[in-house]
Amino acid sequence: MRNKIRPTVDCVFKAIFGKKENRNLLINFLNAVLGPEEGKRITKVTLLNPYNEREFENGKLSVVDVKAQDESGKYYQIEVQLSVASWLALRMLHNWAGIYHPQLEKGKEYDSLNPVISIWILEGVLFRPEKPADEKDYLHLAFEARERSLGFPMSDHFGIHILQLPYWSPKSSVEDDKERWIHFLKEGENMDADRLPEGMDTEEMRQAFGVLDSFANNREEYFLYLSRLDAIRQERTWKSAVRRAREEVQKVKEQALKEVQRVREQTLKEAQRVKEQTLKEAQKEAQRVKEQVQREKEEALEQAQREKEQLYEQARKEKERFQKEREELMKLLKQAGIKGGE
Q: What does DSSP assign to residue 36?
């Protein structure tokens, strides 16, 4: 029983599509995914970054892809992605631009630019359908530069194809080269190369499984494969730890925000209570002062009234005394025979 080898592990993937002796597999894969019209099929490619075992010897993960150019000058980039992040679509655009932009060297005209087509193979899901029934339509997504309403292309220079392997549902038989490659990439490690089903038993598939057998049976290549698996595990473990740490930090942050909000609400509530209490005390003091002023006013009025009555009484008595003295004086004058005026 041979060791299981995953075709999507970087060193294996690059050996399948990036070795010069396997260029026919790359051509077959490109034609299968892109589906060019008759007469426009790719027949020849030049590898721009051929397979080099030293790329993988340091045991660290790096961006590993396959770059090639066909006989018409069109560029191709193929990359496999084992984990999917929310920003992956931006990386796809960046990588595409990284191939397209450098073509325009100093002194060259814009019409010297050649199309760039990127193909991404994902073991995770980046784009999800709204309904599970539509998942089959999300297996192969082809993005182009087209006018939104009328649908005509701006240019055929842009193309990004995404194969989302989780949406592949194995069938009793595959129907074409694209399905064969998708089935191989997703299920290849669990298949017996000596007992391939009829739909998978083609020259290209036997050659691709031969690469898996080489990694399974060759001691150095198998150890290289294991080191890449270990690097993938370490990367995923590190990412998982980082994710958990971020989640914990976010949790602490949310708890801190809740505590700040609670303290703020409590402070505002206490401030409102103090404000209301102070207002009540101020109103109470104002009422007390008002009542005191009213009492003092009433007392002052009463005192003024008493003094007024006393003055009236004194004036009355003084008037009576004066009247009495006048009468006595008149009486004396009369007795003396002196006439006086009233």
A: P
